[in-house]
């Protein structure tokens, strides 16, 4: 159970806490100039690797890349160190590099950076459409003759009751989103309120911005108001993973003690509530509320029909047949807002790019599969946590109609409950990946489809990640554990869709081995059908190949895929790792990192430790595949590329108390933990910057 050092306190009415200003326009461009406080913080920051500099190359926030990367950070964080035998309760942000440097880097930094960045996007920044305008909220308001703000505040009260969370302690001035935009400027639009809210411990205090999010808005004028499936899908992935973690158990109301749970009816006991703790349960419930509205919005109007050349609703996913007419998620939809300065709604939507992009599709398939594992109400699935069953038993979330959870697809009906709407989205996307992006002749996924025909290029990174997403899909649809338990053994249901997913996984993995792995060089970045593999072998190509091959091994238990993944990892380490820089060459003798690449590196370290590292059965025992070596690489890479060697460098733009940077009355350094990541109000701009990832280039100092 995650432990919080303080409890959120607020005496402001709940409705007022949800209806907030959408942001202000900064007096100065937040991305220009360096404030005096920032200069001071930079000079006082500790340097980790004086042999390199890691300057920021761009400040534009990429929602898809960030949320994808932080999903991989999450899985490569506390769950990873716990799987290696560490009790997560011993991790403490105040005790830097304890119990070991790797434990702290993974279990505290990677994990907590991941969580806070999600909140930054879906609760604080305003980077999207406000939950008050969500379709589920609007439908309840229409049915009950209520105002939308009444409905939303009532929903939050109901959620607080379900998880045993005091209503008066909900964060103030939240900006919960139900759908997120593709890009924005992560600099704060105005001054962050760091004034004291409450006393903390050991000389620290709780700043106002940690309980009142009003000063954490981004500038709406600098947002790309575009809906891209990769962006709202990657955000969905973060939401689904954390919701699964937070709602995967019960807790006692009187002692806030985590309980695994025995039955879906445990919460009928007045002293037992949903969620692994009161605070985590509240956050988990809010995430599910956002997901529920997001899914209805996607299903009801973000699909595209090339036959009609128009946006449309998706029907029942179980009945969808792409051969009868494609209905898919297009690459870009622009949003025209209605001008509401507080909680703008979409006045109109326009398709800007109607192509189906593989990256978009797998970044929706993966989170929809994760959420399916939570919301699954099929009686034959015996692997659903009791607390998940309780979450969707009618209160606080509607259960699915009986027709939608039986074995008869013919009687499936349209419904708006979380399980049904997610199932519709999930099956549409799965069938479209198969029909639109899989080339049967070569046995691989192609990057794009224009609505009429496939393209002819295979991108190794996206093909590999499609394979991993299909692995999670197969587990979810066959009733196997997903989330943090996505590799655990269990009895599956053997569905038709699951069998097809396994076929696709094997064919794609075989293509990687047969066509992309080169005897004399690294795995090719891609493959043009009719021409062959590309000459380039960048870091991203290796990451995609390792993820795809490892996914195939986990899904099929065929050792040839593990052997191939081990080979690629060894090649990647030997040919791309720069020991002096403590980073990988990303391509063309340069070390340029974007969030997507960083997320892939974190993921590959995790699967290397868990699935590819040397065992007594391996004939070859390369040093690079010893767990000790992999954990050293993880720590070195994270320190150099993510945290960076100085306060104005590295991908992680800022941080606060979750990773040890506490606010203290007698310390104005804006870096109380003495590391190389500044506090949020001090980093990279006049008013500071959100705790998110920015692109960088690693350069050796001569």
UniProtKB/TrEMBL annotation:
Residues 23-52, 665-689 are annotated as: Disordered. The keyword Signal applies. Residues 23-34 have a biased composition (Polar residues). One of its GO terms (biological process) is carbohydrate metabolic process. Keywords: Signal. Residues 1-22 form the signal peptide. This is Extracellular membrane-anchored protein. It comes from Exobacillus caeni.
